[in-house]
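Note to self: the last two entries modelled the partners one at a time, which told us nothing about the interface. This time every component goes in together.
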Amino acid sequence: MKIKKTIIISLILAMFPAIVLINVVFAHKVIIFAWVEDGMIYTESSFGSKRKVRDCAIIVLNDKGMVIHKGQTDGHGNYSFKIPENIESDLILKLEAGTGHQAQWKIPKDELVTKASEQDIPTAMKEKEKLEKSPSILKIITGIVIIFLLAMGVKFLKRKTS
Amino acid sequence: MHISEGVLSAPVLATGAALALAGTGLGLKKIDYDRIVHVAILASAFFVASLIHVNIGPASVHLILNGIVGLLLGVAAIPAILTALLLQAVFFQYGGLTTLGVNVVVMAVPAVLAHYLFLPLLGKSPTLTFIAGFLAGLFSILFSSILLGLALWFTNQNFFETSLAIITAYIPVMIIEGIVTGFCVTFLLKAYPEIIPKKKK
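The predicted structure of the combined assembly is written out below.
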């Protein structure tokens, strides 16, 4: 009876936020995604899923950490700029999303000089979708199971030592 | 509220990791054998809570629930929060592994303080129980915001501006967390009073 009650309460507690705010469930990770097309570098920034990082700084660095370019995302989390001239290293695009949130994306030097093939863009878009994907239910359940297994481990050790 | 990789300096990361390690050791030592399941329940709630996102202007905020975890667990909240944050970093890419220690300190220290500040109010009356929960939720986020500002300040950022920006961004979350925590503890006191820690005499 006690176990049943504990399980029910566990489920309620774990799902309570979802019940209250079911329509605003999104992942919370900061992502910047960039690709090269027709002499331009395009970027898209999001907090995962469809939540865009708006009006936040994008800093472009070379591999020595020197700032090459600065910009800001628009209302849709997008920002694009012309490939800077005389670049002889990979480019690191750093997104500063405020309150300790930051992400970066590296564009290899080779991509800056070669023209993107017809296959490059769809492949890149697939990668972007993968990055923005919300956490699956399986991952959530696995996480909860791991927490309970660890708790059981601690319980076992405590019982053994006492 | 999860600090990403690459934001903080090495000394801040090392200090955070050391404090988190010490706190986790203390928490594990202090966990009451009969309350380990409660620790797991609340760690699970914390683990899931960060998936709840609230869209407020350009800011990205989410539920944290460190208030209720600390209020009900005390020092045992530290290992609970560490486990949940580690799993969030691995499964959801929230925060990061190098920032885990700092994130634990930022979220667990206010949670533990909330336990000592507001637990005495629990169970006195339904209204006081709700108020205790509300204050625990609100205080935890407020103090976490200040600690987050401190961590960023130690990495050569402007403390006042940064903290003000963080606190402003989290004001709606403070209120939401206060209400959620208030309702949760009121409900738990009626439905599952065993989860409320007994006051030491």
